[in-house]
């Protein structure tokens, strides 16, 4: 995925804040649909994208460390070179739709494609191509290197959603009413902890009463218009991702910096309860993933896990899941209040007020679904895939093979290491072994690395370690290895 590092034009938007002057806090914000579209787009961002755009300072240490582990692993541990790229810059199912946001949190360029330029492949009626760099051509086995980036050259994407068994065409276009996620023309209220509701006198007064405001004389309120840039949007994302209940106050009034402990995890109890997902593994009846736990005999803590590529595939695949999908897998209660509020707001605005532009938007915002070719063969959780089998693109004429009209192209699975391979594939090579610490750091399996981990865990005697072999099924994975 290509990132646009320089923006020549600084785009802004404005919202109105209602501020409790005495307590220096934002009571609520009022805005049109543009700002709400931006907030709801947070739910469509893959976790790896959030870590990337926040520069590995997402305040949720386990995800930062997983991302860092992918960066540090040699390319030989991945099924293909494209797999590493996919994990470090995962695509969103809504990347084309989000191009229409007034302010985009993600700086990636979703319309890039790579094609195989060997004559036999390029001259085919349906040319092999990929949306990911370094993909192996399914026809000839060469790496697709020729890059097309012009937004005008991709006119219409055509894909099939296997989960819903129908074809969607031109998904990148805005809905007929002009909205991205919510209907145009409406006015909305946003609370300090990012609950979104329709603007009304009833909702405004109810929110003020919730903050203990009974009359305007005893509690002076100020209306303030503020201007947002992309950097402001990232500040809102970072505060909401870190579990703050005073997101708007932090960003617009106090400019609070999130306190972090030595492990780089936000000093919030709700996060700290969930950043050690390996500490509570229990034995499982469904035998799908087998791992060896290395425990400290003295306190029973897990020092590290010896695992194959299947567990690491699962852990790294969290980087490809959207934030809304993870909240869904957590039954709507991820433990991060402001993100949960956005998720619940989407559902309420859709089912009660019909403000969401379409069922497809609701699906993209709230269902655990990954972009095309991001699902693995050994995925344990019930995760959907927005599967694309082809796209149509317009290319300028070339001397060697002029193309003067739309050309159908066949999308190749970037996880396939050899031409002609079938199935969804996997991110990691199946023969590799790994060490996974309780802090979600992943290392290649080496004796010296294990020794170093034991030293850092204050294991002084080899007899202090004990090994336990367990198997994990879907229930255990959902209950113990979700990142929240």
Features:
484 residues, alpha+beta, seven-stranded mixed sheet, five-stranded antiparallel sheet, 15 helices, 21 strands, disordered N terminus, DUF674
Protein architecture, described:
- This protein is of the alpha+beta class and 484 residues long.
- It has one domain (12-257, 265-480).
- 27% of the residues lie in helices and 21% in strands.
- It has helices spanning 33-41, 47-53, 61-72, 81-88, 119-122, 201-210, 230-241, 247-254, 269-272, 309-317, 323-329, 337-351, 359-366, 447-456, 474-480, and strands at residues 2-3, 13-20, 25-32, 108-109, 113-115, 127-130, 146-148, 154-161, 166-169, 187-191, 196-198, 221-228, 289-296, 302-308, 369-371, 384-386, 390-393, 407-411, 433-437, 442-444, 465-472.
- The protein has a 7-stranded mixed β-sheet with strand order 7-5-6-18-17-8-9, with no helix packed on it.
- The longest helix is centred in the last third of the chain and has 15 residues, at 337-351.
- It is globular and about 70 Å long.
- The protein starts with a strand and ends with a helix.
- The model is unreliable at 1-7, 150-174, 259-287 and 399-404 (pLDDT under 50).
- InterPro entries: DUF674.
Total number of helical segments?
A: 15
Unreliable stretches (pLDDT < 50, length at least 5) are: 1-7, 150-174, 259-287, 399-404
| Amount of beta strand | 15-25%
Which word captures the global form?
globular
Helicity level, as a percent range? 25-40%
Major sheet strand order = 7-5-6-18-17-8-9
Query: Over the alpha carbons, how many angstroms does the gyration radius reach?
Result: 24 Å
In round numbers, the mean pLDDT is 81
- Structural domains: how many: 1
Distance between the termini: 27 Å
Q: How many beta-strand segments?
A: 21
Largest sheet: 7 strands, mixed
State the secondary-structure class: alpha+beta
